[in-house]
Amino acid sequence: MTESTSIIELSFWQILAAYVFIVLLLAIVRWRKIPREKEILISSLRMTFQLLLMGYVLMFLFENPSPWLTSLIVLFMLGFAIWNIFQRVRGPLTREMKRAIAVSMSIGTVLSLLYFNFVVIQFAPWFNPRYFIPIAGMIIGNSMTGITLGVQTLTEHLHSQRSRVEAALMLGATPNQATRKVVNQSFDAAILPTINSMVGAGIVFLPGMMTGQIISGVNPVTAIGYQIAILLGITGAVALTVILFTQLGYKTYFNERMQLKE
Amino acid sequence: MFQLNDVKYKNIINTKQLTIPADAITAVTGPSGSGKSTLLRLLNYLVTPESGTISYQGKPFSEWEPVELRRQVMMLPQQPVLFGETVAENLQAGRLFSGREEASEEKLTAAAQQCMLDKKLSEPAENLSGGEQQRLSLARLLLAAPDVYLLDEPTSALDEDMEWNVMERFLAEARRSAKGVIFISHATAMADHFADRIVHSNSFTGGEV
C-alpha cells in the first residue's frame, strides 16, 4: 500500500485526546450555567460503549457471516430505534400511537432497505454484514430522526389546532380532510432536515459515509457514488416511514364514530 | 326531527325526552354553562351520550354514518375558525369539506352579502375582525347548505344592531330554502323574536341542575 491509501490506526491515547472536545463542551455549559452536564456525560459514555460493542459485534459477524445473525442485528437496531423514538418524544404517547410508530418504522425501513440492497447495490451474499449492517444503520437512524420530528409536530399541532380540526368535522369533513393541514405540516417538518442534508452535501460538509471511505483509502469517485446512492436511499426511507406514520398517526386521534378522542 | 330519549352526558345533559324540530327555527336559551353548546355537539354527533339514544329523521345516530349525518346537520362553533388564506377559500371550505362542488364567485359574493360581509373575495381572511370572521363563518355555512344549521351564539361578537340584522337575513334565507335552524342565544329578546320554538336548558339538564 502506498502512503496515500494507508489508514492511520488510532491508538488508545489518540482517541482519548479526542475527548478533549467533550471536556470543552462541559466547560462551556458549566460556565454558561446550562443544566446539560449529565446528558453530555451520559451520551458520550453511551456513544463510546455502544460503538465499542458494535465494533466487536461487527468483527464477529464478518468472521462468521450468517443470514440469521445479520437479520437479528438489523431487527435489534430497529427495535432499539423504535424504543428510542418513544423516549425522545415529549409528553405521553398512547398505545395506538406507539403502534403507529412501530408499524411505520418497521414497514418503511425494511421496504427501503430491501430495495436499496437488492436493486441499487446488489451485493452478494444478500446478508453480507459488511454492507447490510452499515446501510441498515443509516436508513434506520435517519428514519428514526424523521419520525421523531413527525410525531412531535403531529401531537403538538393536533393539540394546538384541536378547535380547528373539530370545526372542520362540524362541517362534515372526514378525519382525513379535517387533519390534512396538520398532517402535511408534520410530514414537512420530518422531511426537511433530510432535504437540507442533500442541499449542503459536498459543499458545506462531506457526509460521514463518504468521509469514512475516503479516509480508509477508497477512490473519492467511488465513495461519492455510494454517498449519492445512500443519501437518496435515506431520503426515500424517511419519506416512506413518515408518510406511513402520519397516515396511521392521525387516525389514533379519532374513534370509530369519527369523533376526536378526549 | 331530533328525538332524545333518556340521554345522559357527563352530568351536563340529562333528559328523559326531548324533541326538537329539524325544519323550523328553534332557539336554545339558558344561563351560561348550562349545557347549551353540549346539546348542539350531541346533535352534530361530535360527542356521544353515555346512555340513551338520539335520533334524526327517525333513525338512531348509531345507524347513521357520522360524516354523512354531519353533512346534513352542520354546526358552527362560537369561536370563528379560518380555513385557508383568502375570503373566497374560507367561503368554499364548507362545500369542499362536505363533498360538494365549488360554488361560483357570484354565489360566494351573494352569500357574503346575505350575511352582511362586504369584503373582496381575494382579501386575506386573517385581516378580518372577530365580528367579520363570524359573518364569514355564517356565509360559509349558508353556502354549504345542509338540511339543519346548528349555531352556537353565531353573532356574539357583533354589536346589537348588526346582530339583529345578520340573524334576520340568515334566518330569512334559511326559511326561504326550508332549512331547519337550532341556534343558541344569550339574548332572550332575540329568541322570542326569531324562533318558532324556544327550548330552555331546564328541559335537558334535568330541571334542577
TrEMBL record, chain A:
Subcellular location: Membrane
Gene Ontology CC annotation, any one: plasma membrane
Coiled-coil parts of chain: none
Membrane topology qualifier: Multi-pass membrane protein
Chief location bin: membrane
Top-level taxon in the UniProt lineage: Bacteria
This protein's record includes keyword Ubl conjugation: no
Keywords, alphabetical: Membrane, Transmembrane, Transmembrane helix
Bilayer-spanning residue ranges: 12-29, 41-62, 68-86, 107-125, 131-154, 189-208, 228-250
InterPro entries the UniProt entry points to: UPF0014_fam
Family from the record: Belongs to the UPF0014 family.
Protein's recorded name: Putative ABC transport system permease protein
Provenance organism: Marinococcus luteus
Lineage summary: Bacteria, Bacillati, Bacillota, Bacilli, Bacillales
From TrEMBL, chain B:
Topology versus the membrane: Peripheral membrane protein
Keywords attached to this entry: ATP-binding, Nucleotide-binding, Transport
Localization annotation: Cell membrane
InterPro entries hit by this protein: AAA+_ATPase (IPR003593), ABC_transporter-like_ATP-bd (IPR003439), ABC_transporter-like_CS (IPR017871), ABC_transpr_CbiO/EcfA_su (IPR015856), P-loop_NTPase (IPR027417)
Highest taxon listed in the record's lineage: Bacteria
Any one of the GO CC terms: plasma membrane
The protein's name in its UniProt record: Putative ABC transport system ATP-binding protein
PANTHER family documented for this protein: ABC TRANSPORTER I FAMILY MEMBER 17
SUPFAM superfamilies documented for this protein: P-loop containing nucleoside triphosphate hydrolases
Lineage of the species this protein comes from: Bacteria, Bacillati, Bacillota, Bacilli, Bacillales
SMART domains per UniProt: AAA (SM00382)
GO MF entries: ATP binding; ATP hydrolysis activity; transmembrane transporter activity
Record-annotated ABC transporter domain positions: 2-209
